[in-house]
Q: What sequence folds into this?
């Protein structure tokens, strides 16, 4: 049974500005940041730093959970020191601590949660366990001129492809989900099949820039029927067959990459437009690693402009895993009076729909 993280203590909402240290260790990136709610939007991000473990896992072609946990242990404290120094703050200046409590790799999550809870205990600060996907989802709100709920969110990462109706911050209704591979996973597996190093998503996207559009045409899965769910594993197989039957030259690899990227981007855009129609709303928010994809950003921008609506992305570096999104989401919840119980408790699987609502600084 999935474990849930309890928001046991609900204190009186404080409207006082808070400086929150955010810690992200759910997978293969150690992320640390300080978000200060006295400044709006992007100005609130006092400092953020990410240490990527890509080089560590590359020779295995994917993330090795035990190596990930050990590396978080090695990197987290130096990264906290570095981030505080960049923000020109000391531990004594902090008002709260936020950490990713799930979903993710259990050992990796425990490193961040253990350090965060220890800091909170030693400094006598409130702390909160943040849902990693809520962190992604709220990241676009850290930019200037942030959108206000209600809006529709497209969450596309290595582990998720979801369309979510956001009625208020903390109130999330799942509109569509992937039936198999997540969008980022499809990028990574397809890249691996064509011999690109891990993690393949960004490399495949870079290669697609040199490909000729239309040379390889792949299907737009599940767009020929109603519904908002995704399925990318068939597309992956189509690419595998095309690659196997090809001359496997560099030019062909780029053409296939372009065909694959166009198929994924088109599919996501078609479903986003349907989700906006279904939700009766014209604001789309895009987050998660695949949100850094240039062609996806351009395609969704064009769709929103055509509809007279708006699409909001975080800057590309805040699309992939980072501590800023955790500091920000944690700050909103801490300001609203929420705290997690003082135990080192993580939830490798965690349904975002179970989160409590945060609306205008008030918990419902
Ligand atoms: O959000 P994220 O950093 O980690 C998870 O929570 O999963 O997302 C990582 C995923 C990987 O699958 C990576 O290949 C993909 O995002 N990704 C991209 C791009 N940048 C990262 N996929 C396509 N194009 C990109 N530019
Ligand atoms: Zn992520």
A:
């Amino acid at each position: 049974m999935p474990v849930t993280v309890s928001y046991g203590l609900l204190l009186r909402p404080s409207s006082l500005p808070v400086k929150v240290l955010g810690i992200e260790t759910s997978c293969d990136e150690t992320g640390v940041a300080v978000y200060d709610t006295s400044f709006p939007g992007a100005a609130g991000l006092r400092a953020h730093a990410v240490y990527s473990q890509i080089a560590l896992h590359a020779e295995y072609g994917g993330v090795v959970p035990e190596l990930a946990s050990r590396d978080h242990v090695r990197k987290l404290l130096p990264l906290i020191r570095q981030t505080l120094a960049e923000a020109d703050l000391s531990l004594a200046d902090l008002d709260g601590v936020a950490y990713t409590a799930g979903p993710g790799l259990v050992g990796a999550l425990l490193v961040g949660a253990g350090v965060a809870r220890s800091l909170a205990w030693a400094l006598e600060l409130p702390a909160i366990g943040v849902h990693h996907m809520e962190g992604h989802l709220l990241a676009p709100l850290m930019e200037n001129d942030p959108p206000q709920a209600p809006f529709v969110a497209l969450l596309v990462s290595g582990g998720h492809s979801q369309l979510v109706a956001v009625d208020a911050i903390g109130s999330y209704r799942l509109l569509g989900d992937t039936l198999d591979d997540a969008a980022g996973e499809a990028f990574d597996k397809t890249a691996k099949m064509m011999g690109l190093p891990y993690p393949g998503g960004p490399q495949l996207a870079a290669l697609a820039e040199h490909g000729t559009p239309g040379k390889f045409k792949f299907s737009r899965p599940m767009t020929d029927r109603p519904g908002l769910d995704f399925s990318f594993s068939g597309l992956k197989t189509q690419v595998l067959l095309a690659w196997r039957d090809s001359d496997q030259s560099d030019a062909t690899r780029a053409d296939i990459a372009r065909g694959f990227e166009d198929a994924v981007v088109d599919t996501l855009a078609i479903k986003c437009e349907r989700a906006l129609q279904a939700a009766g709303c014209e604001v789309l928010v895009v987050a998660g690693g695949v949100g850094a994809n240039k062609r996806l950003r351009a395609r969704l921008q064009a769709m929103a402009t055509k509809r007279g609506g708006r699409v909001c992305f975080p800057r590309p570096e805040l699309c992939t895993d980072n501590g800023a999104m955790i500091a920000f989401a944690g700050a909103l919840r801490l300001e609203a009076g929420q705290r997690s119980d003082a135990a080192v408790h993580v939830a490798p699987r965690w349904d975002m729909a179970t989160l409590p609502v945060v609306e205008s600084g008030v918990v419902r």
In short: The longest strand covers residues 29-36.
